[in-house]
Give the backbone structure.
Amino acid sequence: QVQLVESGGGLVQPGGSLRLSCAASESIFNLNRMGWYRQAPGKQRELVATITNDGSTDYADSVKGRFTISRDNAKNTIYLQMNSLRPEDAAVYYCHCKRFLFPRLRDYWGQGTQVTVSS
């Protein structure tokens, strides 16, 4: 069972920055395509950004150029640096990964961290 623990959410003004962290309970080399999702009230959960073991990244169009996903293998942690935040970025942000647990890949989620963007 993989545990993912997020931190770093909070209240920020439009145009501000936050950095989210997601610490995994085991080596992130064991995990497939870690990433961040978000869910705003009344909306479906959506993909924000992903990163693979070789460092390849992918972003939702709405955050490209503003958000950066990264990883620290030594700390078993991934990060989401969020700059130029907009009110529409407000949501609960969830860390996600897949891990092979015989006989299939399974999804694991963190508990979520709230990001509020408001003046």
Observations:
- The chain has no helices and eleven strands.
